[in-house]
Amino acid sequence: MFRTLFPSDWLAELDRLQRELPRFGGAAGSIRGSGRSGFPALNVGSSPNAIEIYAFAPGLDPASIDVSIERGVLKIAGVRKSELPQDDAKNTVHINERFAGAFHRSVNLPEGADVEQVAARYVDGVLHISVKRREVTKRRQVAIQ
Amino acid sequence: MNTTQETRSPKPSSLDEHNMQPPVDVVEDADGITLFADMPGVPREKLSVRVEADTLIIEGELSLPVVPELQPGHVEVVVPRYYRAFTLGPGVDGDRIAAELKNGVLTLRIPKAERARPRKIEVRVQ
Fold first, then answer.
1. For residue A14, what is the enclosing H or E element?
2. Dihedral (C-alpha) A121, A69, A1, A42: value to the nearest 10 degrees?
3. What is the ipTM of this complex?
4. What's the rounded Cα separation, in Å, for the pair B48 and B106?
5. Which domains does chain A show, CATH number per domain?
6. Interface probe, candidates A51, A95, A108, A121, chain B, greatest B C-beta count within 10 A
7. Residue A59: which region, alpha, beta or left (left: phi > 0; alpha: psi -120 to 50)?
8. Model pLDDT for residues A48-89, shown as the tens digit of each residue
9. Where do the domains of chain B lie, and which CATH numbers do they carry?
10. Residue A138 has what pLDDT?
11. Which residues on adjacent β-strands are paired with residue A129?
12. Does A18 lie at the interface with B, CB-CB under 8 angstroms?
């Protein structure tokens, strides 16, 4: 799933990827962009049988994550509450880097994705969504007579 | 004062160029410091939290379900490893850190050293 031997500056690399990497399923960038703040980070891969989507969304109640598919676009939405203390004079916030607020990301599913066969699991803060391919679109070897 | 300060060293001997830095929130109150770190994909057995000298080191390796014949398409998480280190400073007790990992969020509670807790000093008026 991961590409190794990437440059060490992960954020710069992420930024470059968001600008340059062809969106899943096509050579052009998605008109829906890459989502606000890039939360959750997404890895998308494909196997002969399914499209696998990994959303790195830590600290959520799985019941509160909204996953939907409409017209070939898979959407992941939800809200992540801040764990920082609210206006408490007794607390000092030294570092505040983690994402908080509403999020929304979309993935364009390729032709042949079977929206009736979708499985989603939330383990260790990663939402793994597996969308099966329809039988007709699977690659078949043709025997030569 | 005794705020946690980030430090670049020491780093692990290998893979030191290929780590993600987990985003963190750090809050200090009268009794200690609470640190939250986002480390999605890291199971408990692949997480390491330790204190070396005055440095708090958080490391974790991602472990995702293996899908046969998976070809990467769009990839934003490019390295399967988190690493971050902080200098603790003299005011906190590195021996009594409590750690909890839930849904990919690591929560550390670092109590203050007894002598570093704020003390109210009575001002007596003669």
1. helix A10-20
2. -90
3. 0.78
4. 11
5. 10-84+97-134 (2.60.40.790)
6. A95
7. left
8. 899 999 999 999 999 999 999 999 999 999 999 988 887 677
9. 19-63+78-113 (2.60.40.790)
10. 67
11. A53, A120
12. yes
